Amino acid sequence: QVQLVESGGGLVQAGGSLRLSCTASGRTFSWYYLGWFRQAPGKEREFVAAITRSGGRTTYADSVKGRFTISRDNGKNTVYLQMNSLQREDTAVYYCAADSRSYIVSLRGLNEYAYWGQGTQVTVSS
User: Fold this and answer.
1) What is the CB neighbour count within 10 angstroms for residue 63?
2) What residues contact residue 65 under an 8 Å CB cut-off, 6+ apart?
3) pLDDT tens for residues 81-92?
4) 43 — alpha (psi -120 to 50), left (phi > 0) or beta?
């Protein structure tokens, strides 16, 4: 089992940047593929970005492609989400997620992740 703790959220003006971090404790961090999801008020939780165990492959939601970058540092047990050119529509609670299943997954589905952090609020003002 792995425990995930997000940090780095806050209030930012439109066009600004934030970097979210998610630090894991528990089992070997490199066993897990990792994802970021978000949930805005009144909406369902949605996929944002994900990264494979080695960091060799990433995937993004179309709404954030070119603006957000996911990365990981296996030595620090941490995954990051660099968010640039933030828009009001990016306002949400952002969640880090992890899983270690061995069969091929898309990395984009909520049901592909067993472990979740508590979330961190990102608010983008105009």
Assistant:
1) 14
2) none
3) 999 999 999 999
4) beta
